[in-house]
UniProtKB/TrEMBL annotation:
Upper taxonomic lineage: Bacteria, Pseudomonadati, Pseudomonadota, Alphaproteobacteria, Rhodobacterales
Protein name as catalogued: ATP-binding cassette domain-containing protein
Superkingdom per UniProt: Bacteria
Gene Ontology molecular-function annotations: ATP binding
PANTHER family per UniProt: IMPORT ATP-BINDING PROTEIN, TRANSPORTER, PUTATIVE-RELATED
A UniProt-annotated Pfam family: ABC_tran
Cited SMART domains: AAA (SM00382)
Annotated ranges, domain ABC transporter: 3-218
Keyword ATP-binding: yes
Key word Coiled coil present: no
Length: 218
C-alpha cells in the first residue's frame, strides 16, 4: 500500500482545485480530512483512491454512495466484491445469491441496522439507509484501507458514532473526510485541515487544537 503525493496539482479542468499538495499516509494511520465545503476534501480523496486502485484492495465509500437504485440492498452490498468473480457468476448473482454469501451480507447489514431492508430496492430507502448500504458494501469488500467521503453525514449522531467505531474495528488504515469535528477527533490518529485547496495543517490528532480547526471554517 503506497500513498504519496508530492507537489501534486489536482483538479478537473484548467483551474486546479489543489496545488502543490504533499501528502503521504502509512499503514496503520487513521487520517481524517477536515475543512469547509469546497475545500477540496473529495478531490484529494479521489486522487488517493486512484493512486491506490489496482495495487491495493480499497474499500471505498464515495460521497454520492455509488449505489444502483433499482437493485436490492443485498445486491448492492454484493457489488463490493464484483471484481473477485467472473462475469458469469456475477450475472447469476443478479438472479440468485448463494446461501453463504447471503448470510455474510445479511450479518453486515444487521450490524448496520438494515436487517429489515435487505430485499428492498435502494431507491425506496431513506438517505441514511442508503448511506448505511454504501458503508455495508465497503465492509463486505474489506481490504487494506477504507477510503470514505463523509460516510456518516446522513445518519443520526448515535448511528454515526457506531458506524465510525465499526470502521475503526474493521480497518487498520483509513482515510476519511468528515464534517463532525468531535467524531474526527474520536476516530483519527492524524488530522489534515484543508481550506481553499490547500493543506493548512497536518498532524497527530492530539496535537491539533480547537483554534486551528475553527480557523478552517472561519
Ligand atoms: N467534477 C468536478 N468538476 C469540476 N469541478 C469540481 C468537480 N468536483 C468538484 N469540483 C470543484 O472542486 C472544488 C473542491 O471540491 P471538493 O468536492 O473536492 O470539496 P469538498 O471539500 O469535498 O467539499 P464538500 O464538503 O462540499 O464535499 C470545488 O470548488 C468544486 O466546485
Amino acid at each position: 500500500m503506497k500513498i504519496r503525493l508530492e507537489g501534486a496539482t489536482l483538479g478537473y479542468g484548467e483551474a486546479p482545485v489543489l496545488s502543490e499538495v504533499n501528502f503521504s499516509q502509512q499503514r496503520g494511520e487513521r487520517v481524517v480530512l477536515l475543512g469547509p465545503s469546497g475545500a477540496g476534501k473529495s478531490t484529494l480523496l479521489m486522487a488517493i483512491h486512484a493512486q491506490l486502485a489496482g495495487a491495493s484492495r480499497v474499500a471505498l465509500v464515495p460521497q454520492d454512495g455509488g449505489l444502483v437504485p433499482q437493485l436490492s440492498v443485498r445486491r448492492n452490498v454484493y457489488m463490493g466484491r464484483l471484481d473477485d468473480h467472473g462475469a458469469a457468476r456475477n450475472l447469476g448473482a443478479l438472479i440468485y445469491l448463494r446461501r453463504p454469501i447471503r448470510d455474510e451480507i445479511d450479518a453486515i447489514l444487521a450490524r448496520l441496522g438494515l436487517q429489515d431492508h435487505v430485499r428492498r430496492p435502494v431507491e425506496a430507502l431513506s438517505g441514511g439507509q442508503r448511506q448505511r448500504t454504501a458503508v455495508g458494501r465497503a465492509f463486505y469488500r474489506g481490504g487494506d484501507i477504507i477510503v470514505a467521503d463523509e460516510p456518516v453525514s446522513a445518519v443520526d449522531g448515535v448511528q454515526a458514532r457506531q458506524i465510525i467505531e465499526m470502521i475503526r474495528d474493521r480497518f487498520d488504515t483509513a482515510l476519511l473526510a468528515l464534517h463532525d469535528v468531535d467524531l474526527a477527533r474520536a476516530f483519527a490518529t492524524r488530522i489534515v485541515g484543508l481550506r481553499d485547496g490547500r493543506i493548512r495543517f497536518d498532524g497527530p490528532a492530539e496535537a491539533i487544537d480547537r483554534r486551528q480547526i475553527d480557523a478552517l471554517y472561519a
